[in-house]
Amino acid sequence: MPGPIPRVEFAVVGVQKAGTTALFHFLSQHSRICVPSAKELHFFDDDSRCWNGPDYRDYLCRFPRRRGRVAGEATPSYIWWPNALERLHAHNRDVKVIALFRDPADRAHAHWRMSRARGLETMDFSNAIRAGRRRLDGLAPNDARRRHFSYVERGFYGAQAERLLSIFPRAQVLMLRQDDLALRHCHTLARVFDFLELKQEPVEARSVFVGDTAAPMDEADAAYLADTYAGDMPRFADLSGLDVWDWPTARQEPGMASGSGGHAPRRGSLGGVTSIMPLSSGVP
Fold it and tell me: Is the separation of the CB atoms in 270 and 249 below 8 Å?
């Protein structure tokens, strides 16, 4: 019986609610890629482990060992959770890292909807992104409540990109937009395969959008978040090299939050889309 793989060679590290499930399943269809049966192993963000001398055996045994395969996983909280990226780097300093991003206000709204659906959130979205942020005050950086109520905090992409690039060389990092995975499927996957130094293979191009039918975000909330992220957006664009200026949050005029008194629905970049899956996939 073959033993576990020696190390993981790529990881999709974020961001949450930005198409990482779709990318994971697209990658799993490549003949030279080996992924675990389940997405989100949450190994490197597990603070209960002994990280002074980590035992990787129960992690690596999740990957089928097949000769000539490139092993990788996708846990979108790695980019945000304290010390997760550093632990990944310690495991394999040559690992290739992929991160997807979406409009941060749309991401926050999708995150809130997920928390509500799981019974973790009682606040409406307007309160959750304002007064609700105080629930994080005084919590330890690795307090589990930060996973659930960090709707706004996870959208400061500039700080996350800066940390990512302080740990991994730029040549080992690929940053993408969820919009590109949705709207330029083949081109975006070709970039990913090139980045992983794999031959191009066709992956089912027919795609469907998987998302809920919840009411869109109110204009007042969108304007509030646009003001909140106004200082971070140029920083992120500069660090990532991504064109984010067609995102609704980036197009919002600063200062509009104070003048928005209505509750008109906001037009999102991809509406309720959270993932893009091939029609052949059975993943919900």
Answer: no
Cα gap 136→141, rounded to integer Å: 9
pLDDT (average), residues 46-50 = 95
- pTM of the full structure: 0.88
CA-to-CA distance for 127 and 131, rounded, in angstroms? 6
Q: Which residues of 229-259 are buried (b: 16+ CB within 10 A; e: fewer)?
A: bbebbeebbebbebebeebbbbebeeeebee
One-letter amino acid identity for 43? F
20-40 tens-digit pLDDT? 999 999 999 999 999 999 899
Q: Give the C-alpha separation, 128 to 151, whole Å.
A: 8
Where residue 140 falls (left for φ over 0; alpha for ψ -120 to 50; beta otherwise) is beta
Pairing of strands 70-74, 207-211: unpaired
